[in-house]
Amino acid sequence: MKRRPGVLLGGLLLLGVAHASDTDDLVSALRQARTLAARGTVEVSVLFPPRAVPTRQARVLPAVPFRPALLAQHFTVTRAQAPPLAGRDVTRFDLTPKVGQAARWTLWIDRVWNVPLAYEERTADGTLARRAAFTQVEPQPVRRQVTVPAIPAGLRAALLAALPGLRLPPGFTSAGVRARPAGGTEVTLSDGANVLALVIAPRNVRAAPGVASRRVGDRFVWLVGNLPDEPLRAALAGIRAVDEEALGTFLAPADSKE
Fold first, then answer.
1. For residues 165 and 240, is the Cβ–Cβ distance under 8 A?
2. CA-based R_g, the chain, Å
3. 8 A C-beta contact, residue 22 and residue 79
4. How does pLDDT run across 83-138, given as a tens digit for each residue?
5. CA–CA distance, 243 with 191 (Å, rounded to integer)
6. pTM for the structure as a whole
7. Which of 118, 132, 64, 58 is nearest to 89 (CA)?
8. Confidence grade of residue 255 (pLDDT, cut at 50, 70, 90)
9. H helix count then E strand count, the chain
10. What's the CA gap between 53 and 5, in Å, rounded?
11. What pLDDT is stored for residue 17 in this prediction?
12. How far is CA 61 from the centre of its chain?
C-alpha cells in the first residue's frame, strides 16, 4: 500500500522528537548511577584543593552530587568516541558551562551498564583538578542507593534576604543549607556538577586558592570552590549585611541553635 507523504513526514517528525540528545543520554546514565555502580579498582587523584597525598585507590568511583536538571540547564553536553577503559567499551561526554568560569567535566560511560567508569574535572583554563577512573572492573555491577536531596523551595530567596547584595556566580543556585558544628551556617551552591560552599562564620578563613572572604559587621562570609579568584570575590563584594535568621526555617531541628 502506498503511503501518503503527510503520514511519512509525520512519522519522521515523531522520530526526530523521540531521538535522545547527548544531554538526555548523559542524564539517563547519571540517574542510573544512583541505583547501579561498577566495582573494581579505581585510581583517584585530587589536585584541588592540594593534598599531601593526592592519589589513592578505591573500590567504586567517589560520589559526585550531580543534579541532572541543573546540569541540563547550565552545561552544553557533547558526545565523543573513546577507546575502551579497563577493558570496557565506553562513550565520552564533555560538559562545558554555558556561562561563567565554572569547572568543565568529562565523563566516560559504560555502553552496556550505562553508568560512569571515569570522570575528570578541569578548571576554566584546562588545569586538571580531579580525576577518578577504573583500572580494573569486576564482571558485574552492584546495586546501591544514592540519594541527592531535593532543593528546598524558597531557599534562594531566603539566602538573598540573609545576605543582601550577594551575587551568585553565573550558573549557580542555592541547593542546601546546614548549621556548622564550629558555628555559623553553610549554604551549598550547585550548577549541576560543580559545588561551592558559601559560609557565614564568626571567624575568618585562611587565604588560599579557591577561597574568597570578607567581613560584614561582626560576621565573616566565605565562598569556597573551584572558581577563579575574580568571580569568587565579585560574588561577595556587594554584600551589605548579614541576617542568618532568614535561613533559620531551612535548618533541621537538630541543627538549630535554640
1. yes
2. 21
3. yes
4. 999 999 999 999 999 999 999 999 999 999 999 999 999 999 999 999 999 999 99
5. 25
6. 0.88
7. 118
8. very low
9. 5, 14
10. 65
11. 43
12. 15
Which one-letter DSSP state was computed for residue 219?
E
Residues 117 and 110: their CA atoms lie apart, in Å, by 6
Tell me, rounded to whole angstroms, the distance of Cα 83 from its chain centroid: 25
Place of cell 544512583: 34
Q: Sign of torsion, CA 114 115 119 124?
A: positive
Which residues make beta-bridge pairs with 79?
93
How many Å apart are CA 159 and CA 173, to the nearest integer? 10
Segment holding 156, helix H or strand E: helix 155-162
Is the distance from CB of 120 to CB of 131 less than 8 angstroms? Answer: yes
What are 112's three cell numbers? 552496556
* Residue position matching grid coordinates 568529562: 106
Backbone angles phi, psi at 97, to 5 degrees: -60, 140
Query: How many of the other CB atoms lie within 10 Å of CB of 56?
Result: 13
Q: How far is CA 69 from CA 5, 23, 66, 95, in A?
A: 38, 10, 9, 14
- Give, in order, the Cα–Cα distances in Å from 226 to each of 122, 239, 250: 9, 21, 26
What the block records as the C-alpha cell of 106 is 568529562
pLDDT single digits (tens) 26-61: 999 999 999 999 999 999 999 998 889 999 999 999
